[in-house]
Amino acid sequence: MIERLLVRMARWAHRPPSWRMVKFVLGLLALLLAIAAIEKWVGWPDRLTAERIRPGKIGRLIREKGVTTDDMRGAAPAERAAE
Description:
Elements: H1 2-14, H2 19-41, H3 55-65, H4 69-74, H5 77-82
């Protein structure tokens, strides 16, 4: 692993990346740091947090709503979300 890193660093020393690529990487790094800072100070929205659903719970949720698989096949995605 270290040998591969040394070879890559040697290639970059002999043929450095273009200024355009350096700007792209720095911009991407700045974007990621901004997202991390916002997440740290403001917090993560609850609706974007994934909940763990146990395997048997999915069927139970569908049965509670009374939706059959035939109803779901013909419905558009917006209609499925509304049900």
